[in-house]
Each structure stands twice: as structure tokens, then as C-alpha cells.
Amino acid sequence: MVDSQEPQSERPGKADDRLATHDEHRLKFGLLGKSIFESLPVGVVTFGPDLKIIDANSQAVRLIKLGERIDKSLAKGTDSPGMTGPNWTEELKSTLSTGKPCRFDNVMYMLNSETRLLRIVCTPLKRTKTSGALGGTAIIEDITEKVYMEEQLANTERLAAIGKLASKVAHELNNPMDGILRYINLAIRIIEAENLEKPKEYLTQCRQGLMRMVQIVSELLEFSRGAHTPFESLRVDHIIEDAIKAMGPIVEASKVQILRDYAPGIPQIRSGNLFQVFCNLIKNALDAMPDGGKLSVSTRLGAANTAIVEFRDTGTGFVPDNSELIFEPFFTTKDKGRGTGLGLAISRDMVERYHGRITAENAPGGGSIFTVHLPVVTKNL
Ligand code: ADP
């Protein structure tokens, strides 16, 4: 017979040894348990059947305003004006009496004038299966960042899906619209020859509507990265001058004076679609100065081999809170029929493709400043 099969009670001194070991284990487990309790990344509060708090770890102290009772401690952060938290006393009592845990996601909890989103799970602690609850535990998790990240991700996915869809729709619409425009132009020519004023007016309206659709579709195609131009390197002031030239007719039609201040010796930059970016910034500046003004375009060499291009106008400026919103697709403050809200979104997309960035701010004396930072080409590829 092996030793382990020998009845333990028959071995003198063994029972005492076992007790000592058991107590040691309890003591050890107590210390271990306490240390696990403390090191948990979530707040844990234990409470008695009267909802009085027995113990709480330091995470719980960090997350909620702990008082004497758990229900009141939870209510302290969720009962602020404008917030509608659960009735904690009722919910916790019901958990203890029914033995069913309760869970609350996205609880808005105000602590130190800051609102955080908490997940709170309350579970009853039972002695045996049949006896009532000894009390319960509340597990409190701060999910503010997680919820924010999920929202961001959903937004990014949504935008990517819209981008894909937009590109498909735009491709599909491009050809039929081109055909319709040709036929309208032909019809206008015939009607003009026959001096039919009304039909001519109607068709002219149709053409205007169609031209707008063509504009939106071509901007959508840009936005969906359909239109790439080769990565050729050019002088930044040359690209700006090309853009100013291309915008010539609308610059001439406006009462806007364009001033240039180009720093000499800036190395070349990858040009790609930057011509379109600059055209768009000029067009926006002109739109912001309906009664005329000045558009100052300047270049300088910034730190870390960056060419900085600044478009400063003396126009209306924008609402300061909108300095980021104006780069969102479809954000426009222009009248219906004048703005698509795609220009800056596309511009930012293009600039970022060349590892640059574009920012907007209101100029101190009125008007706005759009700054484009672009890495210069350090060696010819
Ligand atoms: P859109 O020109 O079709 O409205 P954009 O994306 O180019 O689309 O511009 C978005 C919005 O940004 C404009 O509607 C306008 O409110 C604001 N904005 C852009 N450029 C300027 C500017 N130079 N001055 C003031 N506001 C501007």
C-alpha cells in the first residue's frame, strides 16, 4: 500500500499539520485575493445585503464617487441635471432578491466635472444555492475610449463604403450624362434656329442642372481616387502659377487682386494633383470675397524639408469651430447649386497622398489662411 492511501486520521500529528497548512493557505489566498482584487483593471465594489459598501479596490475609487452605500455612490454621478441614470436602489435590491445579475452599458457618469462612459455589472454573492444573497459585487469598467474608438472605426468604415459606392455610381453616371449633354446641346441649336424661346429656356435650365451633376460626378471621381496623375516633380511656384492661369477667367471676373511672394530656391515637390488643390483653394478664396479683396499666395521653406504654401484672403473667413469640419466631404456653407462640399475633402486627400498636410485658420485681421505643407523631393527618382 502506498502512503497516500493510509487513512490520515490514523497518522498522529497529521490533522494538526493539515490545519496549519489550511490556515496558511487561507492566509495566503487572502493576501493573494486582495492583491488580485487591487490589480484588476476594472473597479470592484463589494457590498452587503443592506447595500452598504464592504470593500472597494482603487480602480473603483478612481471611477466613482464612493460613499457609504453602493446605490447612492452610483447615483451621485448619474443623477446630475440632464442625465437619466437607472434607479440604482431598486435595481440592486432586485438583483439581490432575484439572484439575477444586472448589467448597464454606456452609463454616463459625471466625476470631477468630466463625463465618462461606464459599464456597470452587479452580481449577487450567494452562500449556497438555496440561501439568500450575502450581498453583491459591482464591477465597474471605464469604456469611454473603447466606445469612442468603435464610433471612429464605424465612421471610417462608413466613409470608405460611401467612397466605394460613390465611385461606382459616378462611373456609371459619367457616360449617360455626357450623352444627354450632347443631345441637349444639339436640340438647343435646332431650337435657336427656329426661334422657339420657351423650349430654349427649358433646355437651357436642363443643361445647367446637368452641368452641376457633371461637376459633382467628376469631383466624386477625384474623391474616390480614380484620377491619378503621375508623380512628377516640379517647382511649387510653377504649379501655383499654372493654377492661377487656369483660374484666370474667374479671377478677372472678380474684383480680387492676387499678390505673390515666392521664396527663391525651394527644391521641387511631387506635383501630381496639386494643381487641382491650388485651383480649389483659389476658387474658394474668390468665393469668400464676393465684393473683391486680396489673395496673397506665398511660399517658403519650412523645417524638415517642407515647402509651405500659404493662401491668405481678405474674405469672410469661416466659423472658427468649423476649421476641421470644412474638410469633411459634403460640408458646404455655399448656396444650393454653388457648392458641393467636396473641394477641401478632395484637396486634403490629395495632399496627404504626398505625405503633406493642409490646415485652415482665420486670419487675425479677417479672412482666412489655408496652409499646405509638402515634403520637397531631396533626390531625383
Ligand atoms: P464647397 O466650395 O463646394 O463648399 P469646399 O470643400 O471647397 O466645398 O469648402 C467647404 C466649405 O469651407 C465652404 O463651403 C466654406 O464654408 C469653407 N471655406 C472654404 N474655403 C474658404 C475660404 N477661403 N474662406 C472662407 N470659408 C471657406
Question: What is this entry, summarized?
Answer:
The protein has helices spanning 14-39, 58-63, 70-78, 88-98, 144-193, 197-223, 236-246, 248-253, 274-287, 343-353, and strands at 43-47, 53-56, 102-111, 114-126, 133-142, 233-234, 256-262, 269-270, 293-302, 306-313, 357-362, 368-375. Residues 1-16 have low confidence and may be disordered.
Describe this structure in words.
It is built from 10 helices and 12 strands. With 381 residues, the protein is an alpha+beta fold. Strand 4 and strand 5 (133-142) form a beta hairpin. It binds adenosine-5'-diphosphate. Adenosine-5'-diphosphate binds next to helix 9 and helix 10.
Secondary structure: elements and pairs:
Blueprint: H1 14-39, E1 43-47, E2 53-56, H2 58-63, H3 70-78, H4 88-98, E3 102-111, E4 114-126, E5 133-142, H5 144-193, H6 197-223, E6 233-234, H7 236-246, H8 248-253, E7 256-262, E8 269-270, H9 274-287, E9 293-302, E10 306-313, H10 343-353, E11 357-362, E12 368-375
Parallel strand pairs: 7-9
Antiparallel strand pairs: 1-2, 1-5, 3-4, 4-5, 6-8, 9-10, 10-12, 11-12
Adenosine-5'-diphosphate is lined by residues 280, 284-285, 288, 313, 315-318, 326, 331-334, 339-345, 368.
